[in-house]
Amino acid sequence: MRVIEENAMALGLSSLQMMESAGRALAEVVRGYRPENVLILCGKGNNGGDGMVAARYLQHDGEVHVVYPGPEGKTPETAAQLQLLSHSAVHLHPVRCTSDVLALRRLFEVADVIVDAILGTGGSGSLREPLAACADLANEAAVPVVAADVPTPGIRATRIVAFHRPKQDAAEAVDIGIPLEAECFTGPGDLTLVPGRASSAHKGAGGEVLVVGGGPYQGAPYLAALGALRGGADLVRVASTASIPMPDLIYEPLAGTHLAEEHLETILRLVDRADVVVCGMGLGTESHAVVQAIAENARRAVFDADALRHPLPVARETISTPHAGEFARMTGHVLPDDLAARARSVRSAARDGTILLKSPVDIISDGTRVRFNRTGTPAMTVGGTGDVLAGLAGALFCHLPAFEAAAVAAYGNGRAGMRAAGGRGNGMAATDLVEYIPAEVFGRR
């Protein structure tokens, strides 16, 4: 929901607008009980703001009492709702400590309905005072307790009113006006999934990526490796038959002109230590036995380009990043032009992992879910941008599930390409794109 809400705001739906819709829907549910006395328990976060909006809509239906922690620490949206409530026909009860709550025991005893708007989807851990005392008194009351979005830990909920989508069983979802595209298309909200780096982090905490490629096209694996490095991986190794000196990358030399079975002992040793393997860039058609061996031994792998041949490689967790021609080679089916029909084709093909179809509108599916990505530019038809994408997906795959890693990679890579093309136009090179990845993936969190 954090992703969806951030994407909705990027499309122009403000947090206050969503809060207004959520609170109004919550008030309608409460109104169905025909209460004469309503007690609304609010926290400092936006879930508390939802409860305050509900109080404003219920102000003419009977006695409405709002209990909330005061006076500081509220989100700007919740502070704005409290300001509106101060001009409304409701009773406000700020509480600072347990004794303040216990002094309000009578409100819990006479309430016909209690609304739990203390902690929402962002809440975690056990309740602290004075809100813990609110939870205790709510549990003692023999009246319905309506939870806003999710029940606060420790409070029994008679009914759960979930906003936009249910977060748990037995919840009933209400529409709060979020545009469909906020959920179906990637956006800046997806970047909130990218984990931060702890101050105590050490070398390797960002993940270790092994890139296996090269042969006919020796630059391709190095572009993927740069994508992985800029995508946050701490250690990036390139196992290839050719060396392109880059001091930030670790080169693992392989003899000959292309990858062969004689290299497997060296490669599999590196596969064992890597968090993610990125394989296929520039391999040509002679190395598929190596690809299959990598797939059988890798925990997590991203397969691209020449790796996408039959038999298709499948690691324990897999991301495949084909373009339309490679998808046809994988599946035997030419993609239709209609976007919805293309999405159904990708979803049907994603039986053994996640597929990220590279196209003017990228399609990501794990066989159940489908996301679309429309970042990018025609200037990204230059060779190498897909290699960079595979490497970026590999770095994100160190920390995120396959579907989420693929979605964030598609969005971030496309955004970086748009930035690079802004200065280079159709003269953009894949290495130009690489330089903008950190700002787009990490700078916008």
TrEMBL record:
Documented EC number(s): 4.2.1.136
Binding site for (6S)-NADPHX: 220, 282, 323, 387
Pfam families given in the database record: Carb_kinase, YjeF_N
NCBIfam families, A to Z: yjeF_cterm, yjeF_nterm
Function, in words: Catalyzes the dehydration of the S-form of NAD(P)HX at the expense of ADP, which is converted to AMP. Together with NAD(P)HX epimerase, which catalyzes the epimerization of the S- and R-forms, the enzyme allows the repair of both epimers of NAD(P)HX, a damaged form of NAD(P)H that is a result of enzymatic or heat-dependent hydration.
Record text on subunit structure and interactions: Homotetramer.
Name recorded for this polypeptide: ADP-dependent (S)-NAD(P)H-hydrate dehydratase
Species of the source: Methanoculleus frigidifontis
Originating gene: nnrD
